[in-house]
Amino acid sequence: MKEELYCSHCGELIVDEDYGHINGEVICSDCIERYCTTCERCGALMWDSESYGDDYTVLCRSCYENHYTRCYECDALLHNDDSYEYDGEYYCRECYDNVCCGDSIHDYNYKPEPIFYGDSSRYFGVELEIDIVGKDGAYADEILAVANDSDEHIYIKSDGSLNDGMEIVTHPMTKKSFHVSSTL
Ligand SMILES: [Zn+2]
Ligand SMILES: [Zn+2]
Ligand SMILES: [Zn+2]
Q: Which residue of 13, 140, 147, 153 has the fewest C-beta atoms within 10 A of its own C-beta?
């Protein structure tokens, strides 16, 4: 004779084969459907309230603790491979860029009030995209320090078309002042 099983949550007799276990306790298929979820990584069954993931990713505690973290700044769930460490804390890419690049690399949409150099009806500007070398705040600071030594000649933005770089943009200048600003 088969041993009768009862759901540890609702107390009902288990009548089908779709029951599961949480911490060794039997849970009926109804309760699983209503109150449980499954870890996306290891497939473990758990109560909805015990999910350590977010709205998009369901994770059990051990998978979360072993493979995931949360952005120190915006609290986004991050796989360890997608997290960036800065000063002992972990960040998502976006927050990392903000935190570590400070003000030196602006958003792509950044458009400051143009500063016109020289006096003419025609002004020139350059957008120089540098890629692969890295979207690095310290590097940007260096470029800015040289180019903007005397005046604010350039600014630096991030650019979605670049994999891992940034865009250097000059303020409008006459041809003459281009030559004059030898730093460029
Ligand atoms: Zn049940
Ligand atoms: Zn898991
Ligand atoms: Zn973040």
A: 13
17 C-alpha to ligand 2 centroid (Å): 22
Q: Does residue 135 have a pLDDT over 70?
A: no
Across the range 28-50, mean pLDDT stands at 96
Backbone angles phi, psi at 56, to 5 degrees: -105, -25
- Supply the pLDDT for residue 119: 86
| Closest ligand by atom to 59 CA | 2
CA of 21 to the centre of ligand 1 (A): 11
Return the closest-CA partner of residue 136 out of 109, 170, 96, 108.
96
pTM confidence score: 0.54
Please name the residue that has the structure tokens 């979605």.
160
* Ligand that lies nearest to the alpha carbon of residue 18, given by its number in the listed order: 1
Q: Helix, strand, or coil here: 84?
A: strand
Ligand 2 centroid – CA 63 distance (Å): 4
- Residue 76: CB partners within 8 Å, gap ≥ 6? 54, 70, 92, 95
